[in-house]
Specification:
The chain has four domains: 5-133, Response regulator (Rossmann fold), CATH 3.40.50; 150-303, P-loop containing nucleotide triphosphate hydrolases (Rossmann fold, 3-Layer(aba) Sandwich); 309-392, Helicase, Ruva Protein, domain 3 (Orthogonal Bundle); 400-443, Arc Repressor Mutant, subunit A (Orthogonal Bundle). It has a five-stranded parallel β-sheet with strand order 2-1-3-4-5, with helices on both faces. It has a five-stranded parallel β-sheet with strand order 7-10-13-6-14, with helices on both faces. The protein is 51% helix and 13% strand. It starts with a strand and ends in a 9-residue tail after the last helix. It has helices at 13-25, 36-45, 62-71, 89-98, 110-136, 148-160, 177-186, 203-211, 223-226, 242-254, 280-286, 291-297, 314-329, 338-346, 352-366, 373-392, 400-418, 423-430, 434-443, and strands at residues 5-9, 29-33, 50-54, 79-84, 102-105, 167-170, 195-199, 213-215, 218-220, 231-235, 256-257, 266-267, 271-276, 302-303. Helix 3 runs parallel beside helix 4 (89-98), helix 13 (314-329) packs across helix 15 (352-366) and helix 14 (338-346) packs parallel to helix 16. This is Fis family transcriptional regulator. Keywords: ATP-binding, Nucleotide-binding, Phosphoprotein, Transcription, Transcription regulation, Two-component regulatory system.
Length: 452
Amino acid sequence: MKPGKILIIDDEKDIRNLMEEIFTEEGYQVTTAANGQQAQKAWREQSADLVFLDIWMPDIDGITLLKQMIDEQVLENSCVVMMSGHGTIETAIEATRLGAYDFLEKPLSLAKLLITAERAMEHIQLHQENRHLKQKIPDQILPIGKSKVIAELRNTIKRLSKYTMPVLVVGESGTGKHRLAEAIHKISDRKDHKIVEINGADFDDQERLLVGEESNGHIFRGEFDRADGGTLIVSNFESLSSHGQDCLTQLIYDNSYSRLGSDRKIQLNVRVIVLTEVDPEELAKSRYIREDLINRLNVMPVYVPSLRQHTEDIPELIDYFVDFFLTTEGLNYREFDLSAKNVLRQYSWPGNFKELKNCIQRLLILGDGEVTDVEVKKLLESNKQDSSLPLATVDTSINLKQAKERFEAAYLSQMLRETGGNVTETAKLSGVERTNLYRKLKTLNIDPKNPK
């Protein structure tokens, strides 16, 4: 499948040709326009996923063209990246305020062009997928189940959605901490604004993309700029670097942040929701996390129960996942008999909510007709054996860094094989940001199309 359609609008022929050649080699479908009139004709005849728009052209300026695209609702299905060799901070701010996705300075960097295109394509794809799903199925926001612990969790979410204080969400891997954070956002007054997500372990690598940068009078707007009025979700909080903690503390206590290359404080109205698998008391004892940050976040921690604490909800969760996979992936319906449901209720679920979801998906894919207890037992036993394999093959003759790289290579290669080389799907399933995943694959020398 092609990565997408790109429209390049620039009066400089060499730049148009160079960009067209680069993106064509990457598999994009490329259309070019040398002036405003050609640009209008191009976007009206064929919609583009991504538009690179030069600000300064002889017949009409890019800001005016951007406004025309907004009037014609082109931005409903497209991202626009502005380009200029004479850009100013004011122009960049005006363009992004109007709805441009990003702003690039000339001379254009090949690496920056490709990364910007990848991020923009992912952004528009997720936007379209979310809109498509909302049309097909009702948005299930709150946790599912009739148990007492889940009923109390729903009430907690509803109470917290009314306030703006930071929230610490604590729970085992796979319990749905991320879904809980999204639920707080979606039923709050912030629901029409953006959610920005950070993996604590990746903060330093992604800092420029998040906070932006100011240099030589020019500005690059990060994700924080677009999150004003919205919610910031920080997962794997226990892995956040000291620098990341400083940034988060400034956001929480001062409602501000600073771009790279500048000490200027930028005010930001954002709600912070932090996710961790580590109990707050243990975080405090470790002395790795700033004490003032822990104290502020620990005012009202939310503990997400493990699935084994409310197994009575499993029949209802089974029905939900079956409907979900039928609607979103077109899988065939299979009914679970009572004995099969009882086996699933009696299982310990070390992987919690996420493991149950994967189990239901595999049962729908691998079989036909009614799901029996024999089939469920066989699958669960297979899962246990798969999870125990790494322990039996640990090589202690290498250092921890090498062991980690080997595991990451094996894990990502297997994930790519299961997704048919789909990097976007692999990024979602692995919880790794797509740009960061490309970087990891390159470092580990893994070809997504031919993972070994």
